[in-house]
Amino acid sequence: MKITELIPMIWTEDLDGTIAFYVDVLGFVCSDRNDDWGWVSMSIDGIGLMAARPNAHVPFDKIGFTGSFYFRTDDVDAMWAKIGGKARVCYGMEDFDWGMREFAVYDNNGYILQFGQSLVDRK
Q: What's the pTM value of the predicted model, to 2 decimals?
């Protein structure tokens, strides 16, 4: 037995806004949508993400997540140029002691999205 994939599912109260952010700002492709369920599936470069409106299966008080989504990229500077001015910035581009060059933005729901590249890979 093995796990073959991890696809995060985020909750949103604004499904259209979430689709617009991930498609228009980050470049994801919306591959499936069901308005009756309040659900969408999106992907970019083989990475999947689902979003859904809260439903009766899980108690819901407000959007929340303790953590962040960390995306490794082969060109973090190009990602910054593409999305840095289109999203609310959590922290700007920085080289860290642990060997990563990264930045972070918030999506339209307030989730933190970090983008990083190994400093070794940049040389």
A: 0.88
Would you kindly state where each structural domain of the chain is located, as residue ranges?
Answer: 1-54, 67-123
Helix (H) or strand (E) holding 80: helix 76-83
Percent of the chain with pLDDT over 70: 94
CATH of domain 1-54: 3.10.180.10
Q: Give residue-wise pLDDT tens across range 56-98.
A: 677 667 767 778 999 999 999 999 999 988 999 999 999 999 9
The CATH-assigned architecture of domain 67-123 is Roll (3.10)
Residue 87 to residues 33, 56, 74, 107, 123, Cα–Cα distance (Å): 24, 31, 20, 7, 28
Residue 30 β-bridge partners = 42
